Structures are given as structure tokens and as C-alpha cells.
Amino acid sequence: MIRLIQNKGLAVITTLVLCFSHCPVQGQGMDILGIELGMSPQQVEQVLKARHPNSQIDIQNGYFTYTDGETRFNTDPSVTYFYVDNNHEKLEVYFTSMPTGPAVYGVRRYLSQVENAPPLDRFRQSLLDKYGPPADSHRGDREFVWFFPEGRKQCIAENKNNMKSFAMNPDAKSVLRRIQESRYRDADIGDFSECASFMYYSLQGKSGGLLMGFFVILMDVARAAKAEQAAAAWVEELQAKVVAERNKKGKMIDL
Fold it and tell me: What superkingdom heads the lineage (predicted)?
């Protein structure tokens, strides 16, 4: 069985690097606090450092395990998750695993209390000004979803009448399973590259009143699905190699 094991660490934001192997998705204009899909851990640290110089990141590293039937082996660890807790604001960043990662495939942000809060209607308009018209909205225009880039397919909807079904959590155990089990996804998905990314916003408060808080998810479904697929193939190949090496060992018995 292939397993991704995660462990935690803590780091003060200090790193500054340029974009080389992992670059953000360009031209979409979709980000959360400047964090874009496709960014490397170092790029995310750079963005967070600029906004919150004294923040600390709770870091989780992950690795896969596999076996030759007798001995267990681990892959090299890589960053899979950032968590930043600033009192009433919490930010989670999810990275694809090896061999394609680490690169951002999901961001989740909670704001449970707003100091000097703006009117909800004004905040809602700021979302529309930044991200453009949403694909759908509910709850008196307090719940929105955007799909991008244009022309891609909806791969994960489970309930056509419930917007939260579009808001797949980035920490779901299997993106591939979610796609396969989706009852209302677009038909004939031949390649995961066809899957649309999405941003989902849920606002707290009443129209005409103040913004009480919000919850937002940004997710690259295609990147997450392809990374999961690549990781399974990679670990399967590693396991096949160690099994082949094990089978070469031992002295044959005369017959």
C-alpha cells in the first residue's frame, strides 16, 4: 500500500528566492493574499514575509512509504502544507507531493472576526472588482464560485443545487476519487488537464450590515489530480525496483 506520511515543523519566515522550476499559473488574476496556484514553498514564504514579517509557519513535510515485501522504504520528504494562525485569521496552503511538487494546488483562508469591519456590500463589490463576475452565486449574493481558465470542464460537483459541493477541500484524501465519484461533473473528461480550477467565497453577515467574516478556497483541481496520479506511478516504480533487487538475493537450492 502506498501511503503519504506527514510530519510537522516550525519555521520563521526568512527565505527569498526567484521563480525557477515552479512558477505560478499566469494570467488568471486569481490569488489569496498574493498566493497563486503553482507557487513553490519559497515563493509563498516570500509573499507571507512581505505581509506579516513576524509570522511563523507551521510546516508539514510528507513522504511516501513502500516495501519489497520484507523491508519498508521511505522517499525523501518534501513540503506538503503551510499553516499560519494570526488570531482570528487562519491560512492554509497545500502543496503537491513529489515527484511533481512541491507546488501550490490549494489555499484556504478563514477570517472569523473583522476589526473595523467594512460593510458587507462594499466587501462583496471588492470581490467582484478583483475577480470579475462569478460563475454562480447563492445565499443572497453571499456565496460565490469562479471557475477558470475559461473553457475548462467542471470535474468535482456533487450536487447541482449546493454550491458547497463545488468547494472541495484541498485536504481531501483523494482528488482522483472525488472526480470519479462526482455525480454532476461534466461528462467525457479525457484528461485531467481539462479540469477547471475554482475559487469559492462564503461571506458572513447580512446585506446592509457589516462583514462578520468569510471563508475562501482556491484550488487547482487539474494540478492536484495529475500530481496524485504521478505520485502513484512513481512510488509503484520505486517499489518494483526494490522487489526486483530482493528477488535477486539468496542462494538457489539444488533440485
Answer: Bacteria
